[in-house]
Structure formats: structure tokens, C-alpha cells
Design goal:
6-stranded parallel beta sheet; Rossmann fold; disordered N terminus; alpha/beta; 6 strands; 8 helices; single chain; 208 residues
Length: 208
């Protein structure tokens, strides 16, 4: 292996990586990414966050995410975080409003509806609060956009699919700062399992 490759640099390799799944997903969602990384990002934490079919508030899930991170790594260890779909918004909430900015180096947001998704518009908040919180202009998304000063302390990157029908339109899956990259895949799910997407994500996850 070329000694200059990012995988050999300790500041990337030794920083824990937290992967946050989305709605209707489990940690197995990240099996293709784990295989592509081939052990080059360790330690790795992939907590299960029960969404209860979308009824759980993203606020609740962000608190649970923080508890998993603290239990695994203590309260001071710096981390990188990658969130897929709803998981990216959950991770962002933890970073901005629950103190996660103090320990997060990088946030990789993959197909996450930071600007809301039209697909959530008809969902009733009384039944499926978590999904309703992803409507464009929801109170939760407005709260996150109101003050992004803590997010500015984190290296943020967004990845989206132009043809996405889950986060629709696809460009709404971008953070309010940092670079964003359109990945030429055909669907929301392919952002996390298609070889083209995995190549891009692995490249960025292994950056020094």
C-alpha cells in the first residue's frame, strides 16, 4: 500500500466513526459500506435507533444517539459521523443542540432532508411525528437553521441523488454549509449501497 494513502494516517484511522441509519432501517444498512472500508476506519459504532415507523421524534432519537456515543467512547473522544437519510438530520440535531459540536470533527450527510422533503407533506404529525418533522418548513428544521454557529465548527459534507424520490427534490438533501456532491445513482437507497457511491464515500471517509 502506498504510505501516503489517507488510510495510513493516524488522525483519520484512529478517530471513531459513527454511522447513523435512517427511517425503516437497521444497522445492517451499512454492511456494504463496512465491506468497502475493509477495516480502514476503526473503531466503528453503528447504533440501532428505533424509529417506531416514524412515530419517534428526531429530538428523542438525537438524545439516544448521544447516549450511545458517550457509552462507547466517553464524553471527550473526537468522532466523525455519517448519517444516512433521516439519520443525517438526527446527527445534525445532536451536533447543534445537544453538544455534539464539541467532539465532532466531520459530518457526512448522505441523502438527508435538511431542507425537508415533499414526500413528508401528507404525513400527519399526531401519528408519525418523526416523519412530519421532515416536512419543508417544519418547526424542527427551522430551529436547526435559526443558528448554525455550532455546525460551523464541524467539517460538513453533503451527498445527494438528483433522482431521489424519498428526499424530493434531491437537492433538498444538502446542509446549509460545506460542499455538496451530486452522485449519479438512480435512487435514494443507492446512495449508500451502489459501488459508485461507496467509492466516493470511502474516499472521503479516509481523507486525512
Amino acid at each position: 500500500m502506498n504510505p501516503t494513502e489517507p488510510a495510513d494516517l493516524p488522525n483519520t484511522r484512529d478517530t471513531p466513526l459513527v454511522l447513523v441509519h435512517g427511517l425503516w432501517d437497521t444497522p445492517s444498512l451499512f454492511d456494504p459500506l463496512k465491506a468497502a472500508l475493509a477495516g480502514r476506519r476503526q473503531p466503528l459504532l453503528i447504533p440501532y435507533l428505533p424509529h417506531h415507523w416514524g412515530a419517534s421524534s428526531l429530538t428523542e432519537l438525537a438524545g439516544l444517539l448521544g447516549s450511545h456515543i458517550d457509552a462507547a467512547f466517553g464524553v471527550d473522544q473526537p468522532i466523525d459521523l455519517l448519517g444516512f437519510s433521516m439519520g443525517g438530520v438526527v446527527g445534525r440535531y445532536w451536533i447543534q443542540l445537544l453538544g455534539g459540536h464539541r467532539r465532532t470533527r466531520r459530518l457526512f450527510s448522505v441523502g438527508s432532508p435538511h431542507k425537508g422533503t415533499w414526500a413528508a407533506i401528507p404525513v400527519p404529525a399526531l401519528l408519525l411525528r418523526g416523519i412530519a418533522e421532515m416536512k419543508p418548513g417544519s418547526s424542527l428544521l427551522q430551529l436547526l437553521d435559526r443558528d448554525i454557529s455550532h455546525l460551523q465548527e464541524v467539517d460538513c459534507r453533503s451527498y445527494y441523488c438528483p433522482k431521489d424520490l424519498t428526499v424530493f427534490p434531491g437537492w433538498r438533501a444538502t446542509l446549509p454549509l460545506g460542499p455538496s456532491l451530486s452522485i449519479a445513482v438512480r435512487s435514494h437507497r443507492q446512495l449508500i449501497n451502489h459501488p459508485r457511491a461507496l467509492e466516493i464515500l470511502c474516499r472521503d471517509l479516509l481523507m486525512p
